Fold this protein.
Amino acid sequence: MFDTGNTAFMLLATSLVMLMTPGLAFFYGGLVSRKNVLAIMMQSFVSMGWTTILWVTVGFTMCFGKDVGGIIGNFQYLFLHGVTVKSVFASNAGIPLLVFIAYQMMFAIITPALITGAFADRVKFKAYMIFLTVWLLFVYFPLVHMIWGGGILQQWGVLDFAGGIVVHASAGFAALAAVFFVGKRSVKNLKPHSIPLVALGTGLLWFGWYGFNAGSELRVDAVTAAAFLNTDVAASFAAITWLILARIFEKKPKILGMLTGAVAGLATITPAAGYVGVRAAMLIGIIASLVSYIAVAYKNRKGWDDALDVWGVHGIGGYVGILLLGIFSSLTINANGSNGLLSGNSIFFLKEFIAVTLTALYAFLFTYIALWVINKFTPVRVSEKTEEEGLDRVQFGEEAYI
């Protein structure tokens, strides 16, 4: 009844994706100041708990329930009603439905956590919890259904192998809206307090990303192998490209830049990992660093306080990754995919462009409006005094370093 090999692989992939959220906590934790480490890490870890509760109660059914209007799923799986240990995921992978539920849950956990890097050091925990809830309900869950759950974009032929639209573009452009709404930090000590923590977080993210991308095939086959290799190749080419850019424009190779480049490469290859060949992955990695480096430089010039470059790395990476999928995708790599622009299919490229652009606009607008509404009930931003003292001590009564 169940394929034990595919099931074992998907359990491993699920565990790897789960590891990415603690990895993100370390990555972000190292980038902020010493007095805000616990606050930013808390925002990642609390998503593991609260998003899980939302997922098993209403999230899974909103994403993968029977289609309602192309936008959302119905409530057939409310509180996982009807799901048993014998339920089979409706594909030829032969994996238990419970495994698919757990795997997709890990994506739901990390996506809103990505946004937190944009408003690091200055957002109240209570406001964040409200935002986390409404953003999942009105942005993430509908997007999953529309693209992976049988909704309107999937019916239209839009592809997104592992989350360029669903995860990175949505979170990245939501982060940009948060930057504009919350405003700049009052405290001007903006240097990372621990680059080794950033390196540790990058390592965990890179390791977990194999489950993120290769696992999205939901079985073990040639496409799984292609996605696995493409993930590493794109990250490596991106990391070294950023290192070279730093050497040229900043006069010294920077480890922080190399780590940022690796994450940009991982984000950019994500939507295309199972649809393109390895040579395309090389180009995608290089392009990822170039566009993200330019985006971060532009952000700095404009004075936007995207504290941890969520928009420049994840937003731009996810957006460009979808466009590159529309260019490089090939049926010779994945028969369940589509030919891209280079194979003569301009219509597919246009669909990908429209889908990612509409997603970016919606995520941006909803996030800005949601924060505006939340702010009417409870202040989103901490006081200047709290910023000075540090969120760890004021909000949680704890300190990372004594």
